[in-house]
Write a structure and sequence with these properties.
Chain lengths: 110, 115
């Protein structure tokens, strides 16, 4: 079993849809949870981070962490074609190295 | 402000050769991490350096080595290249090397092709 699992997609949605992206993990020591966006042939860009459990909102993006279920989510409201990219979840424990999921490829169709 | 810069952008090497990749962190950042991203997968941690000292090492063979210079730039060296080393090599910088540090910024990467 991989430490971090993520549906690779591709996920195609129409413009304006709500997108839900998810990751599951097995390491209960993870405390810091991040979402990155990676456009083709570019480096990952940090979108959101959450410490421990809870929700965090930033504009059209909402991150949720459920440590009891070892499950994290990223919601994108009013999705735009410019949101088309690969979304990577990443997590780490205190003093540990980052572990990334394989990424979900998202296409938002105009 | 300049972000993380990496050189070269692309590189083609043959099996058995050696390669050196370079990274300059964001000004003021003292920690540099290296990742390998194989096509279709997430980045995999290779090394972290903070204040010129190795702070973390991922599950990579000894053919991989790195160092950090007094100006906080860094080099990643890979010896005896294998076909499986073909990947995007990413450098990320962060302000500090604290165990709780989560905010890191990635460069555009160096795409290495081994033939």
């Amino acid at each position: 079993q991989k430490e971090v699992e993520q549906d690779p997609g591709p996920l195609s949605v129409p413009e304006g849809a709500i997108v839900s992206l998810n990751c599951t993990y097995s390491n209960s020591a993870f405390q810091y949870f991040m979402w990155y966006r990676q456009y083709s042939r570019k480096g990952p860009e940090l979108l959101m981070y959450t410490y421990s459990s809870g929700n965090k909102e930033d504009g059209r993006f909402t991150a949720q962490v459920d440590k009891s279920s070892k499950y994290i989510s990223l919601f994108i409201r009013d999705s735009q074609p410019s949101d088309s990219a690969t979304y990577l979840c990443a997590m780490k424990g205190y003093g540990q190295n980052f572990v990334f999921g394989p990424g979900t490829r998202l296409s938002v169709l105009p | 402000d300049a972000g993380v810069t990496q050189s070269p952008t692309h590189l083609i090497k043959t099996r058995g050769q050696q390669v050196t990749l370079r990274c300059s962190p964001i000004s003021g950042h003292k920690s540099v991490s290296w990742y390998q991203q194989v096509l279709g997968q997430g980045p995999q941690f290779i090394f972290q350096y903070y204040e010129k000292e190795e702070r973390g090492r991922g599950n990579f063979p000894d053919r991989f080595s790195a160092r950090q210079f007094p100006n906080y730039s860094s080099e990643l060296n890979v010896n005896a290249l294998l076909l499986g080393d073909s990947a995007l090599y990413l450098c990320a910088s962060s302000l500090a090397g604290a165990p709780s540090a989560y905010e890191q910024y990635f460069g555009p990467g160096t795409r290495l092709t081994v033939t």
